[in-house]
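dude i think i finally got it to work??
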Amino acid sequence: MGLELIVLGLSHRTAPVAMRECLAVDPNEAEGFVKTLIALPGIGEATVVSTCNRVEIYAGATDRVAAFDALRTYLAGRLPADAGGVGELETHLYRRAGRAAVHHLFRVASSLDSLVVGEPQILGQVKDAYDLATRSGAAGPLLGDCFPRAFRIARRVRRDTEIARQSVSVSSVAVDLARQVFAGFEGRRVLLIGAGKMADLAGRALKAQGATVAVTNRTRARAEEFGQRLGFAVEPFEELDQAIGRADIVISSTGARQPILTQAALARIQKTRRNRSLVIVDIAVPRDVEAGASAIPGVYLWDIDDLQKEAASALSGRRQEAEKAEQIVEDEVLRYLQTQRGRGVAPTISALRSRFLSVAAAEADKALSQVPEADERTRKTITRLAESIAAKLLHNPQVVLKKEAAGDMADVLTSALAQLFDLPAVAPEPPQSSDEPSNPQAKT
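look at this
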């Protein structure tokens, strides 16, 4: 039975950060998560893309309805009791299947569905998701075809458009927001909490703008390596309250499952600061800072959802390039479908050819049995004549089938040929993974 690509998920476009953080998949649990997915009804292959802006399950479904139902139920079971259950989850979920799922994957990998269109991090995150599926034994021919193709398309978008011009990311938007609040970084102290990818991007953006930065991390060695690499001071994580007390701007991006900064703790810190203004940009999912902290006098808190509005302005100068990128994706989706449908008619063409040639061979043998005195040259001539007639009769059906492979008539034609010529039941060839670019003229 063939598999159909489906997507079930939510993102910054459909769900608030409070819902996204409930469903975010801890990297340490991701392999077990994916193995659970492929054990669900209707699912043959699967992986998950879990970032600060989206939680999406990509699956190869044997039964679309059963798969969607099983995935929704599984996600709902991961929600805490106060999150609203299946009913609330339904209001934020989106579903894609077949062509729409392929289109969605290609757009996500190409950063056309990102909070900051053109940001480069999402491609690496989608690659990580595919590596996870491969490592977990959850990737098969379908994901093995779609995901590498999505990577090639993303590289083509970045090469053939200027969508990544003046490259920005969630981290750089966070830095720009902090800079605007204080009209620059002169005389201001910035504290980075966390030493992962997001912190690295924020740190580089801060360094480029001349900020005075300190970094802290639960693992001291990582903080020291980070600080040495970028030239930042290192604060002990055990003295986080004091470090925040000395800072004007805090950018937090840890992988903690629970808030590391509670409202009560920040209220206590603010008292020692005498309510001096403190800007906190929380770019972690799950969030590092309790939402109630924004009520503390002098604390200005932005989370990942707040950055969406800021990110919208970053798109204004890229709209024309984004339109070019969207057209590339559309073209590649069509190319993918043509390839898949071409594979669908290939078994019919092969069976038809076999049937014609076997009839030709049988008729040639029958004719030759009537002239036992024929020499070898004559026998070969009769055999070649029969094969040539068969090939000429095959030519037009093959041309029409290949031409219609990407159209709506493909299934009708293959079914008609199977009935007319009593062909054996044939199944479409499974998609094969390839490292060749989908555009033979484009080398990446």
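The mean pLDDT is 86.
im so relieved honestly
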